[in-house]
Each structure stands twice: as C-alpha cells, then as structure tokens.
Specification:
Elements (H helix, E strand, L loop, with lengths): L1 H16 L5 E7 L4 E9 L5 E2 L2 E4 L4 H21 L5 E8 L8 H13 L4 E2 L8 H7 L20 H20 L8 E5 L3 H13 L2 E5 L3 H11 L6 E3 L12 E4 L8 H6 L4 E2 L12 H7 L3 E2 L2 H4 L2 H8 L6 H8 L1 H16 L3 H27 L8
Parallel strand pairs: 3-5, 3-6, 4-5, 7-8, 7-10, 8-9, 10-11, 11-12
Antiparallel strand pairs: 1-2, 2-5
Bound molecules: nicotinamide-adenine-dinucleotide.
Length: 379
C-alpha cells in the first residue's frame, strides 16, 4: 500500500512539473542509445514547432527542465511572429561529439512521426542539418534541412533582416522616423547575423562601433567599410558596453544584460539577435529605470523561425521577408503599450502573445459552435 502511495506521489509531482504543457513524450530506444524528451507546450495556434537540442545533460530532471522552458518560449515566439504554429521543443540527452549516429536520428524521426503532425522539428544547439537528413527518412515533420533536401537554407538572412526592422522600429519610437543613417550602433558579435546587420547599416550610412573575439572578422568588416560612407571603430570586447552610441546591438552571447553591464550602457536602446539577453527577468525593469528602450530578443530574432515555418507552405524567400516585417509592427505595438501602461517591454510583449492565444481560443470556440450540430447545443 505504501508503495502505491509513493507511485501516486511521484506521478502527481510529475504532473505538477509539466502543468501548463499539453504533452510530454519520453523517447527511449536502447538499440541506438536514444534518450530524448519531446515537449509540446501549446497548440492553440497550430502544430507545435521547435528545434531539437542535443546536450550531455547531467540528469533527466535537468533535460526535462530545459525542454519545458524552451517549448514554452516557442509558444510565445510563434505567437509574436504571427505564425500559425504552437510551441514545442525536443532535447536529446547525449554528447554531440561522441553519441551521434544515423540510426539514433532515424529512431528519433520515428518518435516524431508517431506524433502524426502535432510536432515539427529541426536543428538547435548540438544538432546539424545533416542529422535531420537521417531523421527525414522516417518522418516528413522535419524542417530547416539543406536546400538540396527541400529546405530553405541560411536562416541568418531573415534573422538579420528582422534585426534591421527592430532597429527601424526603435528609431521610429525614439526619434520619430525609421532612418538608420546618421546614428551610431554598437554591435557585439559579427557572426552570421551581426556581420549582415553591420553591412546593411554601413550601406545605409550609419557609424558603427564593433567588437568580436575573432580578429579576422573584424579585419574583414574594416575592409568592407571602405566601400561605404559610414565609419567602423573597433572596441575592446569588455568596453563595448560603455561605448557611447544610439543603440546597442548584441549579436553574440546570452545574459549580456546584467547588473554590471546595464550600469555601463550609454545608449538609448538595445536591439539585437542574441538569445536570452537578459540575465534575469528583472533586468528589463533595470533597463526601463535607466530610460533605455529594450526590444525583447524573442521578438527581434524571429526571422529564422519565420523562414523555417514558411517551409511548410513550400519555401519562398520573398514571402519570408514580407512576413519578417511583422517584427517591425509587433515592436511598435509593444513599445507603445509599455509606454502607456508603465510596464516593461517584456511584460508588454508577453501580454501581446497571451492576447493572441486568447483570441485564437475564442475564435476556435466560436467556429466550433457554428459547426456543432443543433442537438448538441445546450444553451
Ligand atoms: P555566430 O556563431 O555565427 O556568431 C557569433 C559571433 O559572436 C561570432 O563571430 C563570435 O566570434 C562572436 N563572439 C563570441 N563571443 C563574443 C564576445 N564575448 N564578444 C564579442 N563577440 C563574441 O552566431 P549567429 O548565427 O550570428 O547568431 C548570433 C546570436 O543570435 C546568437 O545568440 C544566436 O543564438 C542568435 N540567433 C541567431 C539566429 C540565426 O538565424 N542565426 C536566429 C535566432 C537567434
């Protein structure tokens, strides 16, 4: 009897943990060594969409916590980008350097297939497009694969375009026009996204202060700058936070907005592609207290997600760029709402997403009522 009570308690704890999520699937295939968790947070807007991360998690609990947090984030990201997809994510427990095999990804593909279209996935940290070429042999519910396999290719193009829309929205809110020229942008990280943003800004006639740990990239941008009217100044990696500029553009690491760096910032706004820029939730308030406009990262960097989602309609690069413009309009609404309601832009962004989910729930109910046969109507 005691044993049964213990089992019930463990089950209750598990349900408490996953409260708020629709479905969590544990995938276990000893033949290939696959141990994975798929979490579907919310499918109000459509099938769940989210990448698959592979990491040598220290424990199953740690992996579960990560996948629950990430899948919830995807619900908000899809809602904000006006996509008809819900939030989901998967994690594979293992070392990407040593534990991968084609068979493991085929086994994972079979689990994705078993969800029958409730979950679409592709690459994330620790997985590559070629891993999913193996998974595709077992399921069609895969996206973000190489162009040769029907995918849409480099997602950093729409992501960087989304950052440009974000910068225009911030300029419009702060200075009353979208103009990128004549301002100074401090860009941290000149990788796939940051370099494209830098080139676009130079082309528009802006001045840049840049930092990157990779010297070769910095030299490449300096050379490129000679073709444009804007200037490039290279900053020390640690000093970039204290550089005087109009907008700080973080395009490298997460947690770059923390107690130490916010103190140093001498900008009017922060708009960048890096994921999880705020070290803690309350750093959004710290930025607001300092009078710095913060464009929530998950809104700004949605361009790649928009492209991946678009694959499911048959890829079209022009359509992706048109849809990416939603980032501009979303941010304008968020900035205005935060200003009106005296709240942080993160709170305003979350509210906007929750409102979209609420509207969709109402609409589904409304149409369901319309379709319901008469004898079922009780009111
Ligand atoms: P990337 O790896 O191509 O570029 C990152 C750059 O940052 C590199 O040039 C690296 O040398 C530099 N860097 C690393 N540490 C640094 C430091 N301490 N100071 C300065 N520079 C440093 O990555 P990416 O694809 O350009 O993505 C940039 C950020 O945007 C990441 O946080 C990523 O998660 C996020 N993001 C990217 C996409 C996309 O489509 N690529 C989509 C959404 C979010």
């Amino acid at each position: 009897m005691k044993q049964l009570e213990n089992v019930i308690t463990v089950k209750q704890n598990m349900f408490q943990k996953i409260a708020g999520h629709e479905q969590v699937v544990f995938c276990n295939d000893p033949a290939t060594g696959l141990q994975a968790i798929i979490a579907i947070h919310n499918t109000t807007l459509g099938p769940a969409l989210g990448g698959t991360r592979m990491r040598p998690y220290g424990s199953v609990d740690e992996a579960l916590e990560d996948v629950l947090r990430l899948s919830e984030g995807m619900t908000y990201k899809c809602a904000a980008a006006d996509l008809d997809f819900g939030g989901g994510k998967a994690v594979i427990i293992g070392d990407p350097q040593h534990d991968k095999s084609p068979a493991l990804f085929r086994a994972f593909g079979q689990y994705v297939e078993s969800l029958n279209g409730r979950f679409y996935t592709g690459t994330d940290m620790g997985t590559t497009m070629s891993d999913f070429v193996h998974a595709m042999k077992e399921t069609n519910f895969i996206n973000g694969v190489p162009v040769a396999f029907g995918g849409s290719g480099d997602s950093s193009i729409p992501t960087s375009q989304g950052v440009i829309y974000g910068l225009q929205a911030a300029n419009s809110f702060l200075y009353g026009n979208d103009e990128l020229a004549g301002k100074t942008y401090a860009i941290q990280g000149l990788g796939k996204v940051g370099f494209k943003v830098a080139e676009h800004l130079l082309h528009a006639g802006a001045d840049l202060i840049v930092s990157d740990i990779n010297q070769t990239i910095l030299t490449r941008l300096k050379k490129r700058a000679a073709e444009f009217s804007g200037s490039v100044k290279i900053a020390d990696n640690e000093k970039i936070y204290g550089e005087k500029a109009d907008i700080f553009v973080p395009c490298a690491l997460g947690s770059v907005l923390n107690d130490r760096t916010i103190e140093q910032l001498r900008v009017q706004a922060v708009v960048g592609s890096a994921n999880n820029q705020l070290a803690k939730h309350d750093h959004a308030q710290k930025l607001r207290d300092k009078g710095i406009l913060y464009a929530p990262d998950y809104i700004v960097n949605a361009g790649g997600l928009i492209q991946v989602a678009d694959e499911l309609y048959g890829s079209n690069k022009e359509r992706v760029l048109v849809k990416t413009k939603a980032i501009y309009h979303s941010l304008m609404e968020i900035f205005k709402e935060a200003d009106r309601e005296f709240i942080t832009t993160v709170e305003a962004a979350d509210r906007k997403c929750e409102k979209r989910l609420e509207q969709q729930r109402y609409q589904s109910n409304f149409f369901m009522r319309g379709r319901r046969p008469k004898w079922q109507i009780r009111e």
